[in-house]
Amino acid sequence: MRLAVLTGLYVGVVCSAQIGAQKIIELPLTGDPAPGGAYLIGVALALIELAHRTAPTRREGWVNAQIMVACGFGASALLAIYIKLVDAAPAAFPGQTFHDIADTWRIVGASLAAFAVSETLDNAFGAWLRGRVHDGIRVLATNAVSVPIDSIVFLSIAFGSLDFLRGQIQAKYAATLLVGLPLVLGLRRLVRQDEPNIVAAQA
Question: I need a surface site. Which of 20, 140, 182, 183 has the fewest CB within 10 A?
């Protein structure tokens, strides 16, 4: 039940990020450009670490987190398919189209590729760190690795360049610190399924 609720939140964050990525925004403090979905991807990566606490062992936590990643992957694909179908349907009023925004298929394809690489890596690294360091440090450490990888894969496929890399990384790290980290630390007691003796025995 706890995993299902967390997965629902994760899928909502991921799909919202796909929509936000259709627009390049200017970051408020630095003025650097970045896809609008960057903030929420920083939150999504942090939520992966929360999923590890829904099971008593590292192995089971890794499986739960990977299930969550797979649900986000599937939801992103479904979003792209549905937008394509709606766009192809006859409009009831003139001028209604998705063509004025970025190529949704390319954005989602890039996101799926980034999912396959960065979030799986984030999950594996986070599972290894579980029980070895504080959860706050685990969130920061995993995102320090996965955020640059996610950004490079996504930008290379979605836009064919790394022009927005600096802004993308800044937005994701900011979201990790201001939203993702407090969210994980605030909710971890609600999802915690630790059995200390079992976890400590895990290699």
Answer: 182
Q: Please report the DSSP string for the chain in residue order.
A: -HHHHHHHHHHHHHHHHHHHTTSEEE-TTT--EEETTHHHHHHHHHHHHHHGGGSSSHHHHHHHHHHHHHHHHHHHHHHHHHHHHHHHSPPSSTT--STTS--HHHHHHHHHHHIIIIIHHHHHHHHHHBTTB-HHHHHHHHHHHHHHHHHHHHHHHHTSS-TTHHHHHHHHHHHIIIIIHHHHHHHHHHH----HHHHHH--
Number of structural domains in the chain: 1
Find the domain containing 19 and state its range: 2-89+100-201
pLDDT value at position 96?
A: 67
Q: Which residue has the tokens 């790290």?
A: 173
Q: Residue 140: which pLDDT band, with cuts at 50, 70 and 90? A: very high
* Gap between the Cα atoms of 93 and 114, Å rounded: 36
- In this predicted model, what pLDDT tens digit does every residue of 10-34 receive, in sequence order? 999 998 988 888 888 999 888 999 9
Alpha carbons 152 and 150: distance in angstroms, whole number: 6
Q: How far apart are CA 132 and CA 143, in angstroms?
A: 17
d(CA 123, CA 126): 5
Q: Give, as one character, the DSSP assignment of residue 95.
A: T
